[in-house]
Amino acid sequence: MAAYFYDNKDYDQAAQLYEKLYQQGNNRYYYQRLLSTYLELERYRDASHLVEQRQKKFPKDLYLYVDEGTIALKQQKEKKARKSFDQAISLITSNQQPIPDLAQAFLNIGRTDYAVQTYRTARAKTKNNALYFNELISVYQRMGDYEAMTQEYFDLLDHQPGMMSSIQISMQRSLQEAPDKRLSDGVRKALITRVQDHPENDRYLEMMIWFSLQENDFRFALEQAKAVDARFPEKNGEPVIRVARIAQSNDALEVASDGYKYIQKKGKEAPYYFDSRVGELEVEFARVNQTHNIPAKELTALKNKYLAAFEELGKNIRTIALMRHYANLVAYHGGDIQEAVSMLDDVLELPRLNAQQRDEVKLELADLLLFAGETWDASLLYMQVEKANKDDILGAQAKFKNAKLSYYNHEFEWAKSQLNVLRASTSKLIANDAMELSLLISDNMEDDSTYGMLELFANADLLLYRNMLDSAWAAYDAISHAALSHPLFDEVLLRKAQIRIKQARYEDADSLLQRLVDFYPEDLTADDALIMRGEINEKHLNNPEQARQCYEKILLDYPGSLYTDHARKRYNALKK
User: Fold this and answer.
1) Residue 544 lies in a domain
2) At what angle do helices 133-143 and 146-159 cross, to 10 degrees?
3) CA–CA gap between residue 409 and residue 397 (Å, rounded)
């Protein structure tokens, strides 16, 4: 009944009942409720008497001085309140038992400054600076004193070096949840101070590297990694190779390349020399795939780099990635299908090649055969891979590629039946691609069950796949001119944009994608167009604001899109 009256703000009735309950046994909960009702009723004399009586019974309960100060605050007596708070602090001893309740009492009334004093005084009295790290970190975060919060993290690291990973996870969570840059600025200041004051401590340098990576400042992270390597040569360049790999995975290719070259200068006997040689070529390959087209002179130079690497490192299990990249390079950028097929055949002949690697290479070989127009041989390889991997993603990929080959061959009904099976794939990407192609086929069947326009579109798609860009453009143009309107027109705009991207004509591609979004906002290709526009404006047109708007539109207008997670990540990155 007391709780009922209290919750309904009938404090007179609540007070009467809590007085009776408290008299029965000095229960702390009833004490706190009774004190609260007295304060609500402004019965400050009764409240003070209640606190005084409890202090006589429990003199070691320091939180009662906070209650005493709270009564003073309610009466606008700030000076008197501070006196009570200070008295509580002065009574702290080496006994840790009253500390949690005292600190929480201060936090309950919003006096975070006194909560900090509580923990710090307890540390001093117990002569144990390893106490209350987590509690102080929480209070400093609540106060917004991020530099002090970070200092506590580093003090904890000093006392328990093995907790570095846990500290990084906790700080990462805080950085992600921070509403502004004050936390990251505080972390940076604290780190710089620690590194300058303790240059011999590699843990602080490692934390500086970690923090720079969290901020996507890959260049600074690499410089710090080099500093660690210079001061601690026994690490053999491990921090540098680690930063280079992370930079590479985040498309910071220049930074990654610099890191790999730094390692190579250590000589062939260095532990990470092999990794750096492979990494540098992977970066070069990624650059080519980003630009889509490469001048013949640069292509020749890059091919020679690969051949030199094979001469030095050999063709073996450790260089499989390089061999596969080389085949892709000479086929899709150099047009030399035979050399590419020969390289993949070399991979298949390697000893100790596991089943998955073998089937992955077969899939790439089938793609090359399709690129060369050898559709029958390509289909046979796709079927082999599918049969060997019935219950995993690789098998689903092979099935999808074979269904797409049937689409290119105008076997639309068969392709559609296979695609409908794949719509239930465990791979979200494959299921989405299968759904889009299946809908493309079913939505564009003519009224008389023929596929006239779709056949033209499939022909154009095959030309695009085979990188015959001018012919593909003409074929898509023919579809646009064949009728005043057609369900394929949004797809035509998307494919034309893809051609312009391959030709590095990014402004033209952006314009085509904008038309698609404006005229066909309800079609399946709209979110594809938006994600492509976002990436074009971010990476090639130097227009981050337009990119951010595209990512935001995906989040707001197409929440079920496959690109939602990526759009959110890029939107948040551009917003900072």
Assistant:
1) yes
2) 170
3) 18
